[in-house]
Every structure is written in C-alpha cells, then in structure tokens.
TrEMBL record:
PANTHER family noted in UniProt: ABC TRANSPORTER PERMEASE YTRF (PTHR30572:SF4), MEMBRANE COMPONENT OF TRANSPORTER-RELATED (PTHR30572)
Protein name listed in UniProt: ADOP family duplicated permease
Protein localization: Cell membrane
Keywords, alphabetical: Cell membrane, Membrane, Transmembrane, Transmembrane helix
Domain of life: Bacteria
Transmembrane stretches, start-end: 86-111, 358-381, 402-435, 455-478, 499-522, 759-784, 805-828, 848-868
Annotated membrane topology: Multi-pass membrane protein
Species annotation: Acidicapsa dinghuensis
Keyword Cell membrane: yes
C-alpha cells in the first residue's frame, strides 16, 4: 500500500474500519462455505477487535493517526470549556496580532528589498561628523557639484546615482486655481537604467535628459500616481503640468513595482536633477542623496576612499572663501567621515526616526505575548491537573507518556492555531492603522505591506513558538504522572501550585516592565505637550506664498490690509518660514567688534506686528517698524540676552554678522522678547534674532514668505479658500502653496511621542488585564485545591486574616519577587530608550513607584474574589467530606 494511500486513510477512519469489517466477515463466510462451523471459524481467526487494530495499523500511518485522534479529542475538550477557551484564544490573539503588526511595520520599513536589480550591492553615502560647536551631526545629502566630481572619479568601478528626498510640491495641470499636491523627486537621468527598470508606458528618463541645466523639462510619473490620478489612461503621455516657473511634459510611466527608494514615501513624479537650476549650481547646497552601485567584482572600500578624497579636496577648496567663519574653527576641516552603508532596503528619514521606537514597541509586544502565553500555560496546567486521574488511567491501560504529552501539545496547537488566525486578522488591520497615526492628512506615510516569504515564516514561527511556550510545561508535567499516586488522590498539589506561582512571578516581571515603559512614554508625551511654546498657536492660519517672478518687487502692505479686512481675520503679519516648520537659519555673530563666537543664533525675518499676531511677550523696548530695515534694527529673545549679556536688558546694544563677501553688517537691538520654540520642541530654547523680513542676516533678497493670519474662528482652515483667493486676486505675481494651521505644525512635533504613548498605554492595559486574569485563575485554582484544608482551619478557629494569609501569602511573595525583577529589567530598558524621553528619567522614585502602585492595585482586585470564596467555605460541609 502506497504512502499516499496510508495518509489518505488517516482522514477516512470510518471507511477503513468498514473495509476491515467486510474483510473479516468475508473470511468467516469463506470458512463456513468450506464446511467449517461459524463458531469455530471465528475462534480460529481471533477477535474482531484485534483484527481491526492490526488492519488499521497496516492501512494508516500510525503516528499521524494518533495525532489526528489527539487533535479531535483536544478540540472536544476546548469546546467543552468554551468560555475559558475563548478567553485563551483572545488573549493569545492580542499578543500574536501585536507581534505580527510590529513585524509588518519592521518588514515594510527596514527589511523589504527595493524592487530593483542588484539591490544587495546598493550603498548610500552618509557623513558622520560634528558641527562647529562640537556637537555630533549626521547627514546624508550632498551638493550636485561634488556629486559629479565623485562620479567622474569612480567611473568604471561604480555608478553613482543622485536622488533628492521626495517632497510635496505644488503642480498644476490646467490653471493655478486647480493647483494640487504631489510627491516630486529630482533624480539622475540614468537612475532607471542603473536600477534595471522598464517603463509601464512611454519611456523613462535617460542620461541625455540630465546633461544641460534646465534644458529638458521631462517627467516620468509613478505607476501608482498614474492609476490614482489618471485612471491608467494611456493618453497621459504628452500631457503637461506646471511646477514653479517650468512646464514639464510627461514622457512615461515607471515600472509598477517601483515605489522609490524611501520607505515611508512614494514619489509621484520624477524629473531630472538638472531641472533644479539653482540647486545644481550651488556648491554648498546639500540637497541630494547619493547612492553607489559598484560593478560586479569591485570591492566597495577603494571606491569609498576615492570618493572621500574628492569630497575632502572639494570642501577644503570651498572653505577658502568663507570669511564669515573664524579661522580657528576651520582647522582640520572637513572633520566628518564619509561612510557607505548598505541601502538594499532603501534610505529614508523615517527609518532613522523610528528605528528605536519600533524596537521598543517590539519589546513591549513580545512581553505582552509572553504574559498571554503564561496565562494559557497556567490554564492548561490547571486542566491537566484536574484530569490527573484520566491521565493515570490512560497510562495504566497502556498509553505511553510521550502520547500523553502529544495529547496536551495537540490541544495547545489548536489554541495557538486559532489565535494565530485571529491575530493575523488583527495584524492586517493594526499595521496600516499605526501608519495612519504616524502621518497626517496633508503628508501621509506610505509603506508597502507586501506578504512575502518572511512574513509567512514569521507567522509560522509565532504559531510554533507560542505552542511550545505555553504547551511544553503542562505536557511535561502530564507525562510525569504516577498512576498509583494519582488514582489514590493525586501527587503533591503544592508541586503543581509552585509551578504556577513561578509563572505568575514571570508574568509580574514582564507586566511591570510594560507598565514602567508605558509610564515613561506617557509622561514624555504629556510634558512635551504641556511645554510652553512662547506663542499662541491656536486659531492661526499659515499661507506659504511664492513669487512667480523673482525680479518682481511686491508691496506687501496693501495685501496685508486686504487680508485683515476679510471677515473672521483679527491680525495678519509675515514671517520668513513658519515656527516649528523644520527650517532655520543659523549664523555666528560678533559682539561689538569682538571675534565671532562659536555659538550660533537663529535668524528669522518678520514683519512689524508679527510678535503681536503670534502673541509673543515683549519684555522691553519696542516692536520692529517699517523704517527699521534700513537701520538694521532687530529683536532678540531672552536666551540671546542670557548668552551674551548675562540675562541683562540688551536694548540699545549692537552686534555684527559677517556676510560671505566679508562685509560686516551692524544690527541694533531695539527690543527683546520671550523665548519661542522655533524649530523643534524637543530642543532647549536657543538664542534668536528677529530682523525685518525683506533682508536676512546677510542682506540678500528673498522670494518667498509665510502669511500669518490670526482668526476669530475656532477652525481657521475654513478661511483657506477665501484667503487664497484674496492673495491671488490682490497680487497676481504671488501664488499660494502650502496652507496649514499652526496647531498642525505643533501636533506634528509630537507625532512620534503620541504614537509611543498611545500604543504603550494600550499594551500596558492589556498586559495588566492579562496578568490580573492569570493571577485570579491561579488563586481560584489554589483555593479549590485547598478547600478541605481551609475548611478544617476555619473549624479550628482560624480568623479572616489568617485565611487570607493562607490563600495569598505565597503568591504575593512571588508577585513581589517578580516586581523587583521587573524593576531591574525596567532600569536596563530605560537606558536604551533615554533618547526617546523628555523631562523624565527611569531612575526617578516617582517613575518607579507609579507602575508598582498600579500593579499592586490590580493584584489586590484579582485576589479579592479568591479570598471571599475562601472565607465562605462551610467547615461542616468539609468535615463531612472528610
């Protein structure tokens, strides 16, 4: 009989038994037909049961058949105890689903290979160095001129590809009134060929499209953008759109699988780097990421050394023209090292921002899964203890101990399988939900959640791992049952309870760590959210305006008056860029002709009335006025006064800035204001200088500004259309780009902290609930096992306090031990996550006490039902039972 037939027979046991019965009866009939007595024939053939057993073993694979039988029996046991089974499946599903969701995020952000040829050989340039102030600094962008020199230096050994980080930009397919947002990326024209990509429609960019500055206004759109924006219309080829002052023509659609090289962002439009005319000319404008693709068989280290030599020579030559930086600060410049890091899975800012947070979330979900496994392990252990006589009888009639362990593991596998299916559904929903929480509506995070072999392997590992985690212990204990002792009343019940108590101790330790980290993240988010900003962000609308023609001179005052006259507008002013928008302009200054210090100050251009519009406190002096631009009058903040004047009133003092042309500009301080969070709420307040908008610290012209509109309505975004129309009608040479509220920028500053706080709090509640349920189950089981003992003690005069100590003393000792272990683990974890914290330390007594108190309260509530049950035991009933 073939192996396949024997496998099939395992799952049609009834049919096999019928065939064996028919064969047995056929032999009897043949014997009777041959003249033998039926009774003698049956006696000679033996019992039907023996023949069925022997025939069954021949027709099926024995171990597979026993496994099938154990699975059926395990399913019946689970169905028999539906409530506890559902609770076990749900708790496991939460743990498995959270682990699955975390892995999907990690896979999409860090592990998914780029859909290009030779992705395993792709590297990205990174510069590790320090600022002039000696602070460590890492960046991964370079200027176009140095990129081209590097490419020429390693030609024949490696291909260098330049790619601008994808960014949201305004594009127009018809008129400026129908402006829309798209992710645009300037790339080297030879990128598509180097990555081995093919067009889905039309053609892709080539090296010829990227040779002459501003000469080839061609664009390739992504397959996703083609599908969502144009419905895969083949007529998209040849369509034109305007971006800035340039009119681009679409020449092709990129490969369907190519979503860019930045996990978290998916470019919609690719244009040649040469179309950024200003960017390709500026030697100091680091706006391009550089990727290195060495040719087959070429070592990467010699390539890196050649690139670094070009970079050093280029930067040293550029530094010769820097007259605005003290010579002593330029000694040893450039100090940074050029590194090549593997980039087969892409490079993005989101990877850097969320590497540690996702690691922490991974730790939390693993701890939650361990708590759930401990709960189920105690549940199965309690069930197997209740079935100890059944196990003893099975051993007595010939079942092997390995078969008992297999029976328990089969039940565990069914639980794990059901939980894995439910957890997979949860992970399928949870991962995109978390991603939506990271981004915001105007700039969403885009990740590809593909289900590859690694996702399947991880799911299988989870199913197997959880089965072994909570099933091996009960299976091992079941296989060690002594039949004689069990049939007389069981083994030492204390031994079984001690095992459960150890599991509770581990649960408590894990739960404490989860609570501890959750408290750290929630406190961090709360303190960041409550940190004074120095201005009032409520009801403020920001309109980023750009000149259509940089040569055109705009008179802003009439426009500001028209905007202020609109219904719902209280105040209006101008600023160079929004506060907390991520931009800054740092300059070194000289106090009264002294040499420049190595402390930089943040410069921001503003219009008169800006501090009133933003509600920034004026400490002394006066606000800027229209005529202050010619007098180089400025405002400074409290941190500036503290840095240079020891906190004294700086009004009337002056300082100079040194431009790139070597000519010093003198600035007179006419007022000082409160500190304002300018770039990042995580950083301390730094010295700031506010100067008239139409000049920056170097006296050069500007071509963009942000209109700051304080409204009287609760939701300022309702005025967007009205104000956009007012600007474009009043000043045709201006166009409005991004429109956002100041509150959106404030909330964006704490997206990471909000995500960590919300997820950690959710995990903490689930972990606490699971630990409490587990503790309740163990205490209830303990009381059930010791009912007679407790009844006798009550009959002998034991009081409530004594009964409570009997029930809870040992398990409370394990809880305390677990909490101490969790405290030690939490302190170790706090060192690792210190970079994610703000205004809180893991070693603070309050930080340690808060999770301990919450855990203690949960333990008391979990123990209360078991204590009440113990105190209500009827001594007379227990004595009669004795």
């Amino acid at each position: 009989m073939s192996v396949w037939t024997r496998i099939v027979n395992v799952f049609r046991s009834d049919r096999v038994n019928c065939e064996i019965a028919e064969e047995f009866e056929t032999h009897i009939e043949e014997a009777v037909a041959a003249g033998r007595n039926e009774r003698e024939a049956r006696r000679a053939l033996g019992t039907y049961v023996r023949h069925r057993k022997e025939g069954h073993q021949v027709r099926v694979i024995g171990w597979l058949d026993s496994l099938r039988a154990d699975a059926i029996f395990g399913w019946r046991q689970l169905w028999k105890h539906k409530t506890t089974s559902v609770a076990a499946v749900l708790s496991l599903a939460l743990g498995i689903g959270a682990c699955g969701a975390a892995f999907r995020l990690v896979n999409a952000l860090f592990l998914r290979p780029l859909p290009i040829q030779n992705s395993e050989r792709l590297y990205a340039v990174r510069l590790d160095g320090v600022t002039f102030q000696g602070k460590p600094f890492i960046w991964d962008t370079m200027s176009y001129p140095v990129f081209m020199k590097m490419r020429a230096a390693v030609a024949g050994q490696a291909e260098l590809i330049a790619m601008e980080p994808a960014h949201r930009n305004d594009i127009t397919f018809s008129s400026d009134a129908e402006m829309e947002k798209a992710y645009v990326q300037h790339v080297s024209g030879w990128m598509f060929a180097a990555f081995g990509l093919r067009p889905a429609l039309g053609r892709l960019l080539t090296e010829d499209d990227d040779r002459v500055q501003g000469a080839e206004p061609y664009a390739v759109i992504s397959y996703g953008y083609w599908s969502s924006r144009f419905g895969r219309d083949p007529g998209v080829i040849g369509k034109s759109f305007r971006m800035g002052d340039d009119l681009y023509r679409i020449v092709g659609v990129s490969d369907r699988g190519f979503t860019g090289t930045e996990p978290g962002k998916m470019p919609d439009v690719f244009v040649p780097t040469a179309m950024n005319v200003q960017g390709v000319r500026e030697a100091g404008d680091g706006w391009l990421r550089v990727f290195v693709l060495p040719r087959s068989g070429i070592a990467i280290e010699p390539v890196r050394q050649q690139m670094y030599a070009v970079y050093r020579a280029f930067e040293q030559e550029r530094a010769k023209a820097w007259t605005n930086i003290p010579k002593e600060l330029l000694i040893g410049y450039p100090r940074e090292k050029l590194l090549l890091r593997p980039a087969g899975t892409g490079v993005s800012q989101m990877q850097d921002d969320y590497r540690v947070p996702l690691t922490v979330l991974g730790l939390l979900v693993v701890l939650m899964l361990l708590i759930a496994c401990a709960n189920v392990a105690n549940l199965i252990a309690a069930r197997s203890s209740a079935r100890s006589r059944e196990m003893a009888l099975r051993i007595s009639i010939g079942s092997g101990r390995l078969r008992l362990a297999q029976m328990i593991l089969a039940e565990s596998a069914i639980l794990a399988g059901l939980a894995t299916v439910a957890g997979a559904l949860f992970a399928f929903w949870a991962a995109p939900f978390v991603v939506r929480s990271i981004g915001h509506a105007d700039d969403p995070v885009r990740l590809v959640f593909g289900g590859g072999w690694n996702v399947l392997a991880f799911g299988s590992f989870l199913a197997l791992g959880t089965t072994l985690l909570f099933g091996l212990g009960p299976a091992f204990r079941a296989s060690k049952i002594k039949p004689a002792s069990a049939l007389k009343g069981g083994d030492d019940p204390m031994a079984r309870r001690r095992g459960m108590y150890l599991v509770i101790g581990a649960q408590t330790a894990f739960c404490f760590v989860v609570l501890f980290l959750s408290f750290l993240f929630v406190t961090t988010f709360r303190r960041l959210s409550e940190r004074p900003l120095g201005f009032a962000p409520e009801r403020v609308l920001l309109l980023n305006t750009l000149k259509k023609d940089n040569k055109h001179v705009i008179d802003w005052q009439p426009l500001l008056e028209r905007i202020k006259a609109q219904p719902g507008v209280e105040l209006v002013a101008l600023e160079g860029w929004p506060l907390l928008g991520g931009m800054n302009d740092n300059e070194l200054i000289s106090m009264k002709g002294a040499p420049p210090t190595n402390v930089s100050s943040n410069f921001l251009g503003i219009s008169p009335g800006w501090i009133k519009t933003m509600k920034i406190a004026l400490l002394d002096g006066r606000d800027l006025q229209a005529e202050d631009a010619r007098a180089h009058a400025v405002l400074v903040n409290r941190a500036f006064a503290q840095q240079y004047f020891g906190g004294r009133d700086p009004v009337g003092q002056w300082f100079t800035t040194l431009g790139f042309n070597g000519t010093p500009d003198r600035h007179e301080i006419v007022g000082w204001v409160a500190d304002v969070a300018a770039k990042n709420v995580h950083e301390p307040m730094s010295p700031a200088v506010y100067l008239p908008l139409h000049t920056d610290a170097l006296g050069s012209s500007w071509d963009s500004a942000t209109l700051v509109v304080r409204t009287s309505v609760t939701d300022p975004s309702v005025l967007t259309a009205t104000l956009r129309h007012t600007v474009e009608q009043s000043e045709p040479e201006l166009r409005v780009g991004d429109v956002e509220t100041q509150m959106e920028l404030v909330r964006a500053q704490t997206i990471r902290e909000r995500l960590l706080a919300n997820l950690a709090a959710f995990f903490a509640v689930v972990a606490l609930l699971l630990a409490a349920v587990g503790l309740y189950g163990v205490l209830s089981y303990s009381v059930l096992q010791r009912e007679r003992e407790i009844g006798v003690r009550i009959a002998l005069g034991a009081r409530l306090g004594h009964v409570t100590r009997i029930v809870t003393a040992q398990i409370f000792a394990m809880v305390a031990t677990g909490a101490l272990a969790g405290c030690a683990l939490g302190l170790i974890a706090a060192r690792y996550v210190q970079s994610l914290l703000y205004g809180v330390k893991g070693s603070d007594p309050i930080t340690m006490a808060a999770p301990a108190l919450v855990l203690f309260a949960a333990v008391l509530l979990s123990a209360l039902p078991a204590v009440l049950r113990a105190t209500r035991i009827d001594p007379a009933t227990m004595l009669r039972a004795e």
